[in-house]
Write a structure and sequence with these properties.
The protein is of the alpha/beta class and about 190 residues long. The chain contains 8 helices and 5 strands. Helix 6 crosses helix 7. This is DNA-binding response regulator, Fis family.
């Protein structure tokens, strides 16, 4: 059965793990409209409890969540069932986290914002199915965008503490504040 289409006999199962309830429910609705059996979770504990109840065939996991990270969710989901196909979804993408996610067993990695079609294409690419509306051209982020993502990742790791983030980045606190006032650069 193709990932993009669900038959009437067996609906593919999907676990959506994201702390953003609006995004989570929007994606859940889009997958349900495509005939998928969807379970949602807002954090690590909910995700693992749902996976233990009924192991999903597919999972979409947000990288950054309060408490335990999405990478821990990926690792432990695959401990529950190694055949679960996981796509990591994040607003703070970096090469290091992409490598970590793939090493832990994720089949693909997408930056936010992503919709149901993007996720279906990511699952299809990972399984070798031909995808119709995907661009295989990789566009590297600009240096300014990479810097902005790194700064925001460090700031998130510091719990929003600008002084601590500035120390870790090796820049003055006021310089960091000025950089944070700017809008994110386009890719």
């Amino acid at each position: 059965m193709s990932i993009a289409s669900a038959g009437t006999e067996q609906r593919p199962s999907l676990l959506l793990v994201d702390d953003d309830s609006t995004l989570r429910e929007r994606l859940a609705r889009a997958f349900r409209e495509r005939g998928w059996d969807v379970t949602t979770a807002g954090d690590y504990d909910e995700a693992l409890a749902a996976a233990r109840r009924e192991s999903p065939e597919y999972a979409v996991v947000d990288l950054r969540m309060p408490g335990r990270s999405g990478l821990e969710v990926v690792r432990d989901l695959l401990t529950v069932d190694a055949s679960t196909r996981v796509v990591v979804l994040t607003g703070y993408g970096s090469i290091a986290t992409t490598v970590d996610a793939i090493r832990l067993g994720a089949v693909n990695y997408l930056p936010k914002p992503a919709d149901a079609d993007d996720l279906l294409a990511a699952f299809a690419r990972a399984s070798g199915e031909p995808s119709v509306a995907t661009s295989e051209r990789f566009e590297a982020p600009s240096l300014a965008r990479a810097e902005w993502e790194h700064i925001n990742r460090v700031l998130a790791d510091c719990g929003g503490n600008i002084s601590e983030a500035a120390r870790k980045l090796g820049i003055h606190r006021r310089s960091l504040q000025r950089k944070l006032q700017k809008y994110p650069p386009s890719r």
